[in-house]
Amino acid sequence: MTKKEIYENKTETLITPLIKANNFELVDVEYVKEGSTSYLRVYIDKEDGITVEDCTLLSRAFNLILDTNDYIDDTYIFEVSSPGLMRPLKKDKDFQRNLGKQVEIRLFKSLDKQKEFEGELKSFDKDNITVMMEDEKEIIFKRIDIALVRLAFDF
């Protein structure tokens, strides 16, 4: 397991009781390096949307836990955020929640000379995602080939 995975898993374990106590949903935890700065980010959501106050509440409460447990060796910045409208679908619960909705899929490599697809999310399992295209054709994408999946929005 990489240092990144260890930090993310430990954070998820430690923050889950706070998430549940405040009726939030944990969308994602990521530990990333951007330039010379490392970030520990927690993305949360709830049915009627996340507010700045929600992020502040969770940030303050979890900072105390971070200070007590001190499991990250590097210097980092801790952030709590809403995942936003254009958030990627990563976990099974994301796919489950969005079955029947329009999604955008971007592939790492072209499939039939195309890297971007849009259609209705029909099903998923640990290896594949099935999407019904506009022409009523179902395409099964291997998860390993997918760079990004997110909800499709018409602006």
Automatic annotation (TrEMBL):
The organism's place on the tree of life at top rank: Bacteria
InterPro entries: Ribosome_maturation_RimP, RimP_C, RimP_C_sf, RimP_N, RimP_N_sf
Residue ranges constituting the Ribosome maturation factor RimP N-terminal domain according to the UniProt record: 14-85
Domain Ribosome maturation factor RimP C-terminal, first and last residues per copy: 89-155
Locations listed in the record: Cytoplasm
Protein family (similarity comment): Belongs to the RimP family.
Gene Ontology biological process terms in this record: ribosomal small subunit assembly; translation
Name of this chain's protein: Ribosome maturation factor RimP
HAMAP family in UniProt: RimP
Principal subcellular localization: cytoplasm
Keyword list, A-Z: Cytoplasm, Ribosome biogenesis
